Amino acid sequence: MKKFLIKWLLIGLLLRLILMPFTAHSDMTALDLGAFVISQKGEFLTFYDYLSKLEKANPLVNLYGVGLFNYPPLAYLTPALFMAILSPFYNFSANYVFMTGMDKIFQTAELFKTIFLLKLPYLLFDFLLAFLLLKIFKEKGHQAFKIWMINPLTLYATFAMGQFDIIPTLLVVTGIFFAFK
Fold first, then answer.
1. Which of 30, 46, 19, 137 is nearest to 79 (CA)?
2. Rounded CA gap, 66 and 77, in Å?
3. pTM beyond 0.85
């Protein structure tokens, strides 16, 4: 059993680590900006208004307008927590270039590090979910775990595109787990 879990955990981790630094979607910039404004500018309760307080000539306002932050708070607060923790590893100058024009950062190696750091917290939620599925499905838990480790939807949405959907998915599955108890 232990060998099985380690094998599939390593396969899943390898797949994720390959995708994380080399793939991205422009939607990541909104989550990145929100996390940056909260964790680095201290706008914990006022980040939704951040863009509207900037001058109209600001590159962020020109690019996004003032209504960029349209996800619920958890979508921005969670990455902000991890950005605060991982801030010693961030190059915030490169991160700003990522937020203001992904096309410009493709010319630097910092892109890969920035994208990797933005997706890194998703590994925690993803692996918690995998082990939760192992518990929920009991006798078929190994099969559920293995399928989750190579789940193309999760690999694409979370680790290629950088979407935060893994967080609410974990919360829903956790609710199901406790409902069965």
1. 30
2. 19
3. yes
Mean pLDDT of 104-116: 79
How much is the average pLDDT of 155-179?
95
Instruction: Report the amino acid identity of residue 37.
Output: V
DSSP 8-state code for residue 45: T
Tokens found for residue 167: 């967080």
Q: What are the distances in angstroms from CA 156 to CA 112, 124, 129, 159, 174? A: 17, 17, 16, 6, 22
CA distance linking residue 119 with residue 110, whole number of Å: 14
CB contact set of 165 (below 8 Å; sequence gap of 6+): 157, 158
Tell me the pLDDT band of 105, cut-offs 50, 70 and 90: low
CB-based contact 99:32 (threshold 8 Å): yes
Question: Would you say 155 and 15 are in contact if contact means Cβ atoms under 8 Å apart?
Answer: yes
Residue 75 in tokens: 């979508």
